[in-house]
Design a protein that fits this description.
CATH superfamily: Methylpurine-DNA glycosylase (MPG)
Mean pLDDT: 92
Strand content: 25-35%
Number of helices: 4
CATH architecture: Roll
CATH class: Alpha Beta
Shape: globular
């Protein structure tokens, strides 16, 4: 059986409601082309949704800032930011112009935690605003893998208070290796 070439995700995939995009990213293939020309492929295994102005855990809830500016643009762009002065967090902007939502990539197959994801991908400030549809160094493709998942509360957002702390907007894939053999 011949395997079909993977298809790159277009902006249309991202220009939708963040709570639809976040779970649908599970099982997608993240492709990273490094400066030395090497290419690595990763299956997305955990995501977390941040939904616009009303979500007090979302950076956009504080209004338009230099940091959050890219979130106010059309979906399909990379939003990276630095935490603790050492970890670049990888997010994908969703929704239409003026709908500041994004999905944090919390895990890839074999890599757990958004700080580790950023480190493995060698992210830095230069990825801010990168278009996933046209980038030559980071993009997403269909993998043909459908991963079952569970919805759980987001983590590390105690500052947002309720009801935001308890929203089940983190999506965690189950049985990644089992799904590859399907």
């Amino acid at each position: 059986m011949r395997r079909m070439k993977n298809k790159r995700l277009t902006k249309d995939f991202f220009i939708r409601e963040v709570l639809d995009v976040a779970p649908e990213l599970l099982g997608k293939e993240l492709i990273r082309k490094y400066e030395d020309g090497s290419v690595r492929k990763f299956i997305i295994t955990e995501t977390e949704a941040y939904r616009g102005f009303e979500d007090l855990a979302c950076h956009a809830s504080k209004g338009r800032t230099r940091r959050s500016e890219i979130m106010f643009r059309t979906g399909g762009n990379v939003y990276v930011y630095l935490i603790y002065g050492m970890y670049w967090m990888l997010n994908f902007v969703t929704g239409g112009e003026g709908d500041p939502s994004a999905v944090l990539i919390r895990g890839l197959e074999g890599i757990s935690g958004p700080g580790r994801v950023g480190r493995e991908l060698l992210l830095d400030q230069s990825f801010y605003g990168e278009c996933l549809e046209t980038s030559e160094r980071i993009w997403l493709e269909e993998s043909g893998i459908a991963l079952p998942y569970r919805k759980v509360p987001r983590v590390g957002i105690h500052y947002a208070g309720e009801p935001w702390v308890s929203k089940p907007w983190r999506f965690v894939a189950m049985h990644v290796s089992d799904s590859r053999s399907m």
